[in-house]
Specification:
single chain, alpha+beta, 3-stranded antiparallel β-sheet
């Protein structure tokens, strides 16, 4: 059993709602992943991704959550905690939003709510790993108080590791 409390899987901010995945998110998730420029995942693949997220949440007590705008009710991306390149004790914060909503502060707003939820679990530190090319993500993480720790390399190039202590 984990020594940490489970993360809250329902988060709300002034403009956003973060909630658990549903099968109905599959089409929007496919569209979001296709913006990466590597093609569009199949319906089956996307369904498998959502099922894996739900299983990971049940197993780890942390979650990557879909983001909906409160007023519009539309899916605009996801944000949450993952094991990724780190551990369940010191997970990574991750987020991805549709390009059409970039530059409006949604990533910072959602990630701030996730930071609060992570702190409530009893965790003391989070990580983030970002491709060295991803300047907008660095701006978000800087606003949230993350600091660069080190750089590594993987198949896609340089990866910058950042960390943030939690209160």
């Amino acid at each position: 059993m984990s020594r940490y409390e489970a993360m809250s899987f329902h988060l709300e901010t002034e403009r956003l709602i973060l909630r658990p995945w549903a099968e109905s998110d599959a089409d929007e998730l496919r569209a979001l992943k296709s913006e990466r420029g590597n093609g569009t995942p199949t319906v089956e693949h996307t369904g498998t991704l959502i099922a894996k997220q739900l299983t990971a949440t049940a197993t780890t007590g942390i979650a990557l959550l879909p983001i909906q705008r409160r007023d519009e009710g539309d899916f605009i991306g996801y944000c949450g905690l993952i094991i990724g390149r780190s551990t369940v004790e010191e997970p990574e914060i991750a987020y991805e939003l549709f390009q059409r909503v970039h530059g409006r502060g949604y990533a910072t707003e959602a990630a701030s709510a996730v930071l609060d939820a992570a702190g409530a679990t009893g965790r003391k530190r989070l990580w983030s790993t970002v491709g060295a090319w991803n300047t907008p993500s660095f701006r978000v993480l800087e606003k949230l108080g993350f600091e660069r720790d080190h750089v590594s390399t993987d198949d896609s190039g340089e990866v910058v590791w950042l960390t943030r202590s939690l209160p």
